[in-house]
Amino acid sequence: MEVIRIVVTGLLVLLFQQGLIHVALLWAAVAFGLYPLVKTGLSDLLHERKIGTEIFVTIATLVAVFGGETVAGAVLMVIILIAEFIAELNTDRARASIKALIGSAPQVALVRSATGERQVPIAALRPGDVVLVREGEKVPVDGHVVHGSGSVDEAVITGESLPKSKQVGAPVFAGTLLAAGALDIRTEGVGQDTTFARIIALVEQAESEQAPIQKLADRVAAWLIPVVLVFLVGVFLVTGDVRTVVTLMIFTSPAELGLATPLVMIAAIARAARAGILIKGGIHLEALAKVDVVVFDKTGTLTANQPRVVEVRVASEATDEAELLQWAAAADRRSAHPLAKAVVDAARDHDLQVREPEAYEQIQGRGVKAKVDGREVLVGNAALLTEHGVGLDTVAERDGRTRLHVAVDGRWMGVIFIADTLRPGAAEALAELKRTGVQRLVMLTGDHRATAQAVAQAAGIDEVHADLLPQDKVKAIADLMAQGHRVAMVGDGVNDAPALVRADVGIAMGGGGTQAALEAADIALMQDELGKIAVARAIARRAYRTIQENLFVGVGVVHVLGIVAALMGWIGPIEAAIIHLGPDVLVFFNSVKLLRVRIQGA
Ligand code: ADP
Ligand code: MG
Q: Mutation test of ligand 1: which of 327, 332, 366, 417 has the most ligand atoms closer than 8 Å to its C-beta?
């Protein structure tokens, strides 16, 4: 329809210039061409109380037509239609490229059943069903490998293009591609319950959020228009020349203001998605570009999320190591905390039976409180025990190991030591952040100060706050912001979620992190690599700079030159409209350039 409109109106202008048709037909063509502009213009005016480009162009065209410059008006309108069409096409293409990057998940699965194999729609799958995936097929569900092996391309989830080898017991994700081998997968999540579906939802949500700079552009446009109108009326009163006024209108229309940012945002979000970084909206790009303090959670964020129990020490003769571990494992069995997993794994490794707790409660930033065999078990930091009136001795710190104290029925039973290594490349990643202009790196943790300091030193953190509850983390962030800093928070746990929301930018570890953190964050790293933060920041800064370039070159320079040229009488409306296409094209190329930009580490 847009193309037809452009071709028909353009053709009629040509025919009229050749003297082949009556001027009435040209008027009809103008009306036909103006229709969509008037429609969006009026709807913006009524619903958003904003005078947009469309109204501007409409007025310019009408002034030209009624001022006796019918051809100029019609040409102007056709060119604007073309410009809008290009802009729309580009936005659509950028969107499509995001979707294409993400791909799609299969809608049917091959299920193993008593009678053999059957193809079923994924909606009919139940958790526990075993689905078969053959070489070259996409995985239809989230689950674990129960049979076979293969290598899986997980780029859609993690951005990592090297295929990953999968053996029995390995997790696999819907939407990923089995590059080689054959896998039997036990279904755990289907459809909307898959990581893949969540990623799609995030990206769709990303498009609907506006960046502050965009709002600024809208505000400037709203303010500029009345000024411009007064200016134009003034020019008309002085010169009495319709042509000059129409020419000026073309250069004073704030068209590129609207175009200069959204395209950049979409391109940047797509570029980041390709690097395994999900940005939930353009607004966060701007915030990330301006960040000067980055705050990290410790456990699961700076550390590798593979903690191991390295020592168990009993506090009295009343118990032994195995029993202590058994109590702790039973209490921690229902917890999703990375430390809990280490405790349960250690118990299993020692062939200890892990009982099911009758009641269980995770106390954020402290530990767990559970009822096991009718007895109250506490597992967590010293503060947890103290707050429950349990007395305990101080335990000497060594090597930055995390201590989990265990109490049963109000009696301190002993300590479990957990070694949690720094994520590979953490120190380099943090150093890189500093190179991109981050001034201060801060750690906020619920763990003990001595442990926290050991990790902080190894990672290159400037400042440590330990023994924090979730609300303390929020307060620490709020304090930094009150000092005038722009703060990014990086976290993985349920206990980080409030802080992720409070910070200017929340960044979640998307792989090993919790769903709560993922939802609270503005940016998710699909591979838990700290290096991706610097990559995200590089993309954000680049995007921000591109927007500034667009506004400056596209809007500033071209328009100022155009206005001067029009006032001097060097150019008429048609030349103006043609020149006006220039910044549109410039802005476009400048923006999509971002899609292909190479970024170190991405
Ligand atoms: P971080 O802020 O570094 O991610 P958390 O706030 O998650 O750490 O945990 C802080 C402390 O609380 C841990 O060091 C541990 O002592 C204790 N803790 C939290 N959850 C558990 C759990 N499920 N089992 C045992 N201890 C826990
Ligand atoms: Mg954590």
A: 366
Predicted pLDDT of residue 26: 85
Give 517-569 pLDDT, tens digit per residue: 888 899 998 888 899 999 999 999 999 888 888 878 776 777 788 888 888 88
Q: Which atom of ligand 1 is nearest the CA belonging to 298? A: 3
The tokens of 222 are what?
Answer: 């709203």
Over the stretch 237-257, which tens digit does the pLDDT of each residue have?
A: 888 788 888 888 777 766 556
Gap from CA of 513 to ligand 1 centroid (Å) = 14
Cβ < 6 A, ligand 1 pocket? 297-300, 332, 335, 337, 339-340, 362, 365-368, 379-381, 402, 404, 445-447, 493, 495
Q: Which one of 305, 334, 337, 415 would you pick to mutate in the ligand 1 pocket, going by the greatest count of ligand atoms within 8 A of its CB?
A: 337
**Token couple for 429:** 């990643």
Catalytically active residues, by annotation: 297
Residue with tokens 């591109």: 546
> Going by CA atoms, what residue is nearest to atom 21 of ligand 1?
367
Could you give the domains of the chain?
106-139+142-189 (2.70.150.10), 304-421 (3.40.1110.10)
Q: Which residues contact 231 (CB under 8 A, 6 or more apart)?
A: 248, 252
User: What order of strands is seen across the sheet that includes strand 411-419?
Assistant: 308-314, 411-419, 402-408, 375-380, 367-372, 359-363
pTM given for the model: 0.75
- According to DSSP, residue 21 is labeled S
